Every structure is written in C-alpha cells, then in structure tokens.
Amino acid sequence: MVTDTGLRVLFDTSALTKRYAVEEGRERILGLFAATGEAVIAAHCGSEIASALLRRRREGRLSAADFERVWNMAQQDVADMERVPLDAHVERFAFAAMEHAPLRAVDALHIGSAMSARVDLFVTCDRRQADAARHMGLQTEYVPGFRKETL
Fold first, then answer.
1. Average model confidence (pLDDT) across the chain
2. Which of these, 23, 54, 69, 98, is most buried using a 10 Å CB contact count?
3. CATH value at residue 99
C-alpha cells in the first residue's frame, strides 16, 4: 500500500535514475517514492535521464530491449511529475548554490528548481550536491551509492 504523506519531493537525476537500475540505494529511493505526495523534477531532468540510459546502452551495460523497457518507464514517470520550468528565479538559486560549492551547472539547477518550487524534501545520490542543498536551507536526503561513472 502506498502511503501519501503529502510531501512535495524533488528527485534529482542521480536519485530518479535509481528507479530503473538495480544498484545500491535503489530500495531507499523506491521507499521515498512510495511516501511522496507529489514528485517534482527540474526541467532538464528528462534529458539527463535519457543521456544516462543511452550511455549505458552504448557501453553494453543495458541491452536494447532493456533500454526500451526502462526508457518507456522513465518517460511515463517524467510525464506524471511536476516539472519546474527553467527561469530566472531557478537560475538565481542555482548561481547561489554554485557560489557555495564547486557544482556543475546541471547539478546546481536541480537545487535551484527545488528552491523555486519550495519542495519539502530534496533527494540526491550526490554528496557534494546534498551538502550544497543543505547549505541553501533545503531539507535534503542523501542516498549513498551514486557512482558518477555509471551515469
């Protein structure tokens, strides 16, 4: 049974991708989804998921059939989530996060989107991003197990 807590939760790409890969941290991400009232993503998250899955397919870590199955799941998930549009407000928050920590712009945009959307919880599998999000005042859950080379 899914428990709807009413929480608005922004999942960054590292967290959302764990819904589709059997790897460390997946069970925690699935549990957080089950407890989420409204899942929120940054505008660029769908493109990042596509990039991660295509890279896995090219590297032979995901068969063509598995890619199609997982890509269809991801597209449906993204369509069902609230997408935070990229605007000047999001960019200002992202800039502030980058002033605090050496983040890639795409990672800072997740934080900026979470701040702009006023989510209750920000979920990431990237420790540096989690630290920056906490510094920005976001309630943050860091889920260990993220390996940048796999995305």
1. 91
2. 98
3. 3.40.50.1010
Query: From the CB of residue 149, how many other CB atoms can be counted at a distance below 10 Å?
Result: 5
Nearest residue to 111 via CA among 11, 22, 35, 27: 11
**What does the alpha-carbon distance between residue 63 and residue 45 come to, in Å, rounded to a whole number?**
22
Residue 68 placed within a domain: yes
Give a yes or no: residue 150 inside a domain: no
Structural domain total, the chain: 1
- Of 39, 26, 6, nearest to 143 (Cα)? 26
Closest CA to 121 of 31, 20, 1, 32: 32
CA-CA distance, 61 to 67, in Å (whole number)?
A: 10
What is the tens place of the pLDDT at every residue in 6-49? Answer: 899 999 999 999 998 888 899 999 999 999 999 999 999 999 99
Q: Is the pLDDT of residue 3 over 80?
A: no
Cα 24 to Cα 14: distance, rounded to the nearest angstrom: 12
